[in-house]
Amino acid sequence: MTATSEHRPSASTTRSPHLLATLGSTALVFGIVNAADVGWTAASTLVPLVAGGVMLGLFVRMERRAAQPIVPLRLFTSRERSGAYLARMLYMGAMMGFFFFTSQFVQSVYRWTPLRAGLAFLPMTLVNFVFAVQVPRLLERAARPLVLLTGVVLTTLGMAWLSRLDLHTPYLTGVALPMVLIGAGQGLTLAPLTSSGVDGVAPADAGAGSGMVNTVHQIGSALSLSILTAVAASVSTGHAAADIAARSGVALTGSAVLLALAVAVVLTLIVPSRATRNERSLRCRL
After folding, report:
1. Backbone angles phi, psi at 114, to 5 degrees
2. Spatial separation of the C-alpha atoms in residues 152 and 268, rounded to whole Å
3. Taking the model in full, what pTM does it have?
4. What is the mean pLDDT of residues 74-91?
5. What is the DSSP code string of 57-90?
6. Are 85 and 212 in contact (CB under 8 A)?
7. What would the 3-class secondary structure string for 81-126 be?
8. At what angle do helices 177-198 and 206-233 cross, to 10 degrees?
């Protein structure tokens, strides 16, 4: 009984990493959002940003020393997995900005009802479905990184096109057609990105690996949306509809930048890593 209790982690020790990760992420998001109102040099912005960075640093330190970490740091030893986590953060952050600001645009500039605004996303949704169901067949014919790279590039092109929004942008050529590219890109991206995020994970770390994919998905969405919101809030024209159009364009430009960074991550981390693994596998067979 005594020996068992000595090796059992206390409740406070078990909860500490959770608190540090949660509070650290929350502080970062709060600081970024607050910057839109008071500026980046204000104490109410800098304090939470610094505090968030410190708490996340402490979280990593605790995880490195923990016998049973929440996030085993060995998950990041694979370049492909690390690249998949980073690319997913950037990609989902860009897509969160897309949904948030595009829906604002069609309701505030076009004066569409919420129902019609929802239907406006059908070009993306339908194309997304068509391409997503074809991914298994595509992966039989092409390497996973190639399918993933094609998807992220298509999404980037569509987002860059959509970011040209202004007060006079027509729906068909300015919104619907870019959505077709975005839908095709998303349909090709998510499944390969998820596979790269869990590929090669040891059976003992399967739960943590899967959880990390979901975690970076949520953190990337929250952090990126807070950044895009702060950037969009800096734009002002003095007219309500013009403000929405200008802010949406700036935010979606930011989403395109995030996607371009995701393309760079795929090219520098995921593609070379997969090529190296395939080469090693071929040598072993020979």
Report:
1. -55, -35
2. 14
3. 0.83
4. 92
5. HHHHHHHHH-SS-SS-GGGGGSHHHHHHHHHHHH
6. yes
7. HHHHHHHHHHHHHHHHHHHHHHHHHHHHCCCCCHHHHHHCCHHHHH
8. 150
